[in-house]
Amino acid sequence: MKPNIGVAALAAAFLAVPAVAKDKNDKTAVVRPIDIASAAPDDAWRPIDLENTLLMDLPQGEVVIEMRPDIAPKTVAQIKTLVRQHFYDDLDFHRVIEGFVAQGGDPKGDGTGGSSLPDIPAEFTHDTEEMPDFTPIGRDRMAARVGFIDGLPAAAQPESLRSFRTDKHVEVWGAHCPGVMSMARTTDPNSANSQFFLVIGDARQSLDRRYAVWGWIVAGFENTRRIERGEPPKRPTPILRMRIAADVPDAEKPHILVMKTDSEAFQKYLEAAGVVKDGFVRNLCAIETPRKINGKVEL
Hints:
By secondary structure, this protein is of the alpha+beta class. The protein has helices at 7-16, 33-39, 73-84, 204-207, 264-273, and strands spanning 19-21, 29-31, 45-47, 53-58, 61-67, 95-97, 101-104, 126-127, 134-138, 145-149, 152-156, 171-174, 180-183, 196-199, 213-219, 241-244, 256-259, 276-277, 280-281, 291-293, 296-298.
């Protein structure tokens, strides 16, 4: 697969484009996405749940992952069990494809290993009625509706399908955008165990609705950029350790707030970024949900 090298550049371009806002003081006042995020009221932000926050230490630095039991409850429960057993400590990223994914979590280091825990049933999609926090922002070239589930990029079928389908089921799923965490498996949909991958390019077309999204990186994504590439890499990058944020000393706990993606502030942020035009989303994977990390707004 050819690497997707344009996502980071697109994201930077989208969020750097200023919107022009008219007000009584300056009819050509420039409003930037970062300005909207910085001015958002306190009730536009939510704290991450430390019990469902994973700290992954790489040689390059810490990566903070918000796990999502609302989307993949069985997967998150298994990962938390393995983390608390120190299963992932010192395991390597054994398969890293530029512009696609970085895969790890295999004690054998060759893609054939797993843990002693049972395999996990597929958690690829949900009914939209099970995901009340799904906030669509428009459509795109791949899905009738795209948006966010409380910060995590997601896509869904049109709600109008419900009246035509015998099972009355309308699917929503996590989108495999850069920074999203998902589970590896064999050809058996119910075979995920310990191996996972973090998405490092736009992999929606290949992976959506076929693999279980279980979280997203809320801080430290830049520390994943230097994971050694290769299948296998010549000098594999190790996971030094993994911890649940609730288990670490107070001084090491992350202080992160995420902008609520169903808030008025987020809607204004999207308008300032200019990422939706006439209901069409230019690039879902280029939209960064704002976070406050130690009080500083980051995109």
